[in-house]
Amino acid sequence: GAQLFWPTSPVPFTVCLGSREHGDDIKPEHMRAFAVPAGKGVYINPSTWHNGVYVRPEHAPARFLTRQGRVHARISCSWAAEFGTILRVPLA
To answer: Quick one: 11 exposed, middle or buried, by C-beta within 10 A (0-12, 13-18, 19+)?
Structure first.
């Protein structure tokens, strides 16, 4: 199902998303980072690949309200173990 991330206090954060069009063949180059401004949240459609949310050290620790749809199927991927790489993005 879908998932919502909403900060309990207004902080900017970054989230990495990957299109479901790649199915289970997701690769690091399919991921894209999005900067979410302070006071906003993100709603992730079902079957969209995503990592956790990331905040800059000066905004940490940050707490998030999360909600998931009724059906939550999860497939995990370790970029380091499966592709020998990590995703590096600038944080909002």
So the answer is: buried
Which of 14, 22, 28 is CA-nearest to residue 60?
14
Return the amino acid letter for 5: F
pTM here is 0.84
Backbone angles phi, psi at 83, to 5 degrees: -125, -5
Tokens of 41: 């949240």
Q: Which residues of 49-71 are buried (b: 16+ CB within 10 A; e: fewer)?
A: bbbebbbeeebeeeebeeeeeee
68 phi, psi to nearest 5 deg: -120, 155
> Taking the CB of residue 15, how many other CB atoms lie within 10 A of it?
20
- Give the residue carrying structure tokens 């992730």: 44
At 20-46, the pLDDT tens digits run 898 888 899 999 999 999 999 999 998
